[in-house]
Amino acid sequence: MSDIRHIVFDIGKVLIHYDPEIPYTRLIPDARERQRFFDTVCTPAWNVEQDRGRSWEEAEALLIDDHPHEEDNIRAFRRHWHEMVPHAYDDSVALMLELIERGHDVTMLTNFAADTFVEARRRFPFLDRPRGVTVSGEVGMIKPDRRIYELHAATFGLDPAGAIFIDDSEPNVEGAREAGWRAIHFTAPAMLEDALASHGIVV
Fold this sequence. Notes:
With 203 residues, this protein is an alpha/beta fold. It has helices at residues 12-15, 31-40, 44-50, 56-66, 71-79, 84-87, 91-101, 114-123, 146-156, 170-178, 189-198; strands at residues 6-9, 106-110, 133-135, 163-167, 182-185. A 5-stranded parallel β-sheet has the order 3-2-1-4-5, with helices on both faces. The longest helix has 11 residues, at 56-66. The protein is elongated. It starts with 5 loop residues before the first strand and ends in a 5-residue tail after the last helix. The relative contact order is 0.17.
């Protein structure tokens, strides 16, 4: 019998990701040009910044200020961000849904800004099924700030000692551990299944 009572899943980069080989193919057909765009304009660092409680419009305006010659692509990126979502509906999300179906207490801790999360819910009704979500962008904190883990635990009555935090970012996993959580750094669905099994959780 597992002593894990809660599973906390960071779903942000699973749903919305910036893989230059998948999204944006119609808008920037050339793979090298897409790579350049994501390496120099819509970078992971910009993704983090736009989650600090800003709306998409504010984040977009700041990015255009920094890259005025990329304005058309930046505006198109926001209009068509949902193109990348279906491609990212992958085995990791399927595992989370399976955990919910098996009766596990699953919450989500995400860096989504609030308006982005609203859009994601429109496309993925299952986002309403877990017990709760902390949208850290709404409160001006983002992982690995340990306060966001403490807020999530307090909001949903979780005991970090009896919970597993799952994330594909090593700094976020380390932040959760500093806040007293057990944590799994996953890079592939098969690895996640094995890690959960080591804690007595069968998917």
